[in-house]
Amino acid sequence: MVRVLTRTPYWCRSVNPTTFLIIHDDKFAEHPFIYVKVCINEKSAPLIVFDTGCGPGAALSEDLFYKDLKDFLLHFPVAANGDCPLAIYPIVSNGGVQCRERPIIIINTHCHFDHIGGNESFSLLSSSIFASGYDEDFLRDDSTGHPDQKTPRQENSLCDTVGMRLPRYKITSFLKDRQHLLGSLESLHTPGHTPDSLSIYDHQQGVLYVGDLFYRRKCALPDHRIIFQPIMFPASGSWIDYMRSLQKLKAFIGQVEYTLFSHGKRNIMISASHTTAEVPAMELLESVIRFFDDIITGKLEPRETFLKQGEYYSLWKYDEEDPEFSVVAPSRLLSEVWEAKNSTAIDLTPTGNLRLV
Ligand SMILES: [Zn+2]
Ligand SMILES: [Zn+2]
Q: What DSSP designation does 160 have?
């Protein structure tokens, strides 16, 4: 059941036995989906938080409580968690009950402002912050010695595009591809939306978290507002990497489901960082691959093209009443795929393995 919280900018509900979905109702209308995994039966187990939303400065009103995600996790009683805040667990000792804080671990699916907004508070708490190790330079935040020169993290976070200060935070661990971590999790490098796009598979619950890689165009918020969100690509996106990542996830899901089936278990699900939580993984992924194949083969042409920050962007969606996806990307990303396909030096196979030969 969805619990509508009128006094905080966060809605929270349980999505599986160990995971909660928190939706940030933010002033940028990004409505990022934040997932929080808590092992209820393991008292001192850490709270694992996938992304931190748009940050405390993005609240729609000053009157709200717990604008900082850290405060929400530490202080807001969640009904589906026995009316305990998600980061707190009770300890019964000598006839009394004491509340203890769980250690919090942040995993960033990538560095965009709507995913790292709350990182600073967790960094101050000395929480671990994990990010993709695919391209560490993309996330560098050390000064170059030129005060007016932006660091890569400043540039790539897109904070400037919405007038937000880049949160100060230290990445404590860069995750490798196919790295197993924190008991049941496995990281997968899935560049394309950005070079640092990271997917995480939860082996315990059979859920694949894909960040901003893809999600459905439409969703209803807990307050019944309907929102529409295109799959967005920034200037740092790459459709060559993207198509490879989609094929990589398809192969991964196929492998995992094959093993699950042989043990008589269920299909796996996908949860994204916008609009889409816990939907059958293979069905959604095959549908998004078909959509991008139609764009790349020219079957689906852009509906509009417009100039944004000095670059031409296009919008694609099927000419239907309620299409499942829409995408907005620099038009250049499509040309790059075409050039790669025409190049004899590069083999863009249907399995998505882009190999330099
Ligand atoms: Zn993003
Ligand atoms: Zn996002």
A: G
